[in-house]
Write a structure and sequence with these properties.
The complex is a heterodimer of chains A (222) and B (289). Chain A has 222 residues and is of the alpha/beta class. Chain A has helices at residues 9-16, 30-33, 39-55, 73-76, 95-104, 148-151, 178-189, 192-195; strands at residues 2-6, 21-27, 61-67, 88-91, 110-112, 114-124, 127-132. Chain A has two domains: 2-118, Rossmann fold (3-Layer(aba) Sandwich); 133-196, no CATH class. In chain A, 28% of the residues lie in helices and 19% in strands. Chain A has a four-stranded parallel sheet with strand order 3-2-4-5, sandwiched between helices. Chain A has a three-stranded antiparallel sheet with strand order 1-6-7. In chain B, strand 3, helix 4 (82-94) and strand 4 form a beta-alpha-beta unit. With 289 residues, chain B is of the alpha/beta class. Classes of the chains: A alpha/beta (222), B alpha/beta (289).
Chain lengths: 222, 289
């Protein structure tokens, strides 16, 4: 799932301080799960902003809402009848939601309230770690289900680099060596022969370069 | 050194593009460069243009420098991060490359290694700024250098850009970042140049227009169809079509463009012959240079 963290309050204030009427819009999707941009965080941020601007002698109208998802038009459309009542929207959705909201309401300033960080998992409540960099061509079948692109700090496809110590990465001794994890996993699966087969240079055409990626599912289109 | 000095004196300069080979066979390139020695002020060495893997600009620039030929080394954002860019610039500075030009680089997908990952760590403006930062004796991390390089810094500008407003804004950013000379993509008509100079005039820059030697009607048609930023007038294509000796006509067209740009008062030209470097003397001679 997409993970995000709330932006520092000072940064948010800097973005919205010139607008008298602000809608803080959360998203009930991924950012709710990682407790960065759901209705609860909307309420906390809106209260903090109201308090700040009141203390500054510039009270503002700061309202709260949260949409089922900000990455689907039908939910964004629910703002249609009230968005004109605001001078700006502070979206606590991930970067996708912020942009899709701005796409739909082209003349309304939309600002991000969170930093979208990575695709990751919940290790324990409040601890999230990255697992996927969405490169567009999954190689987990070759690496024992452990992604070297996301979990090796050098993104090596034929590791280990030789710099790890006691299973920890040389870049950060608190971080497990991705290739140590791959080795142990393949060993446990009895697939160590895979470790002996070099991975050829990766095809990065499905990754970030070359512009916006797109999926068209003809079987789903209506 | 000679290039910067001549431009400062207001002299018309002639540069020739020397496309590095895809491989290590460099004898032909060196002999073609030596053949026009004295007629060409400097050789522009592209850095993997069109994202096609070739011998590096640094390598060919050093090779030509070792024969006493002045070069303009291209430095490209696409393939190197800020460490590698600075390292190569220091190498160029230490080994006597006086002129460097920053380019953004064509997208990886246009080239012959389309599955590669682009770097694009620095933007073009950041790279140009970085070249000037190195000249102040510090690197991009602010750390003092043991000896600062000295470069004449340039970049690119496209007078035929579809969105001239955006191109001029980019030009101003490049000027602010310290670029002083600008090389255009191939231009095939003085009208394109005139329209650009009318809008861009007054800026403190040396403008060097590129004259591309067309090799055939097919090449002209390819540019028309696939390279939207470069305009080839239809009249030029039909002139080649009707010519009894097409190659000679192509050489003549290139020579006429060189002369026309010189008469228009641009700072200089870059002649691009894309493998037909042996035609360079004929172009220069027909242009009266």
């Amino acid at each position: 799932m997409i993970r995000a963290v709330g932006k520092p309050l000072e940064e948010v204030i800097g973005m919205v301080q010139d607008y008298p009427r602000i809608l803080v819009a959360g998203c009930d999707g991924c950012v709710t799960v990682c407790e960065a941009g759901g209705l609860k965080e909307v309420k906390v941020l809106a209260a903090a902003l109201r308090l700040y601007f009141t203390q500054q002698g510039e009270p503002k109208q700061i309202d709260e809402t949260s949409l089922t998802r900000q990455c689907d038009k039908e939910y964004l459309a629910q703002l249609g009848d009230r968005i004109d009542g605001y001078d700006a929207v502070l979206s606590l959705a991930c970067g996708c939601g912020v942009q899709f909201l701005a796409d739909m309401y082209t003349t309304k300033p939309v600002y991000p309230g969170v930093d979208t960080t990575f695709l990751g998992v919940t290790e324990e409540r409040g601890v999230y770690t990255e697992r996927c960099q969405a490169c567009g061509r999954c190689i987990l079948a070759d690496t024992g289900g452990v992604c070297p692109i996301a979990r090796c700090s050098k993104r090596m496809l034929n590791g280990p680099c030789g710099g790890s110590d006691k299973g920890k990465c040389e870049v950060n001794p608190e971080m497990p060596c991705g290739w140590q994890l791959i080795y142990e996993r393949l060993k446990a699966l009895g697939q160590l022969d895979r470790f002996e087969q070099p991975i050829t240079p990766k095809d990065w055409t499905t990754s970030r370069d070359g512009g916006v990626r797109k999926i068209v599912r003809e079987d789903l289109r209506v | 050194m000679q290039l910067e000095k001549k431009l400062a004196e207001g002299a018309f300069v002639v540069l020739a593009e020397m496309e590095p080979p895809k491989g290590v066979e460099v004898a032909g390139l060196v002999s073609q460069a030596m053949a026009v020695r004295g007629k060409v002020d400097a050789f522009v060495v592209p850095e993997m243009s069109s994202a096609v893997m070739r011998l590096s600009s640094l390598g060919v620039s050093l090779l030509l420098a070792s024969r006493g030929l002045e070069t303009v080394m291209q430095v490209c954002c696409r393939d190197r991060n800020r460490l590698a860019l600075q390292a190569d610039l220091l190498a160029a500075g230490a080994l006597g490359i006086p002129n460097v030009m920053g380019v953004a680089g064509d997208d990886i997908t246009f080239g012959d290694h389309h599955t590669a990952k682009a770097v694009d760590d620095l933007t073009l403006e950041e790279l140009l700024q970085g070249m000037n930062t190195l000249m102040t004796g510090r690197d991009l991390a602010g750390i003092e250098l043991k000896g600062a390089p000295r470069f004449f810094v340039g970049s690119t500008v496209n007078p035929g850009a579809a969105h001239l407003e955006a191109e001029l804004a980019a030009l101003d950013r490049k000027l602010a970042a310290g670029a002083r000379f600008f090389i255009t993509p191939p231009i095939f008509s003085v009208e394109v140049l005139d329209a650009f100079r009318k809008r861009a005039g007054g800026r403190p820059m040396y403008l060097l227009t590129t004259v591309l030697l067309l090799k055939s009607v097919g090449m002209a048609r390819y540019i028309q169809r696939h390279l939207g930023q470069i305009q080839v007038p239809e009249a030029l294509v039909s002139r080649i079509q009707k010519a009894p000796e097409r190659v000679r006509e192509c050489v003549q067209i290139a020579a006429e463009l060189v002369k026309a740009f010189k008469d228009r008062g641009v700072s200089g030209v870059v002649i691009s012959t894309l493998g037909w470097e042996d035609r360079l003397p004929a172009i220069l001679s027909a242009a009266g240079i």
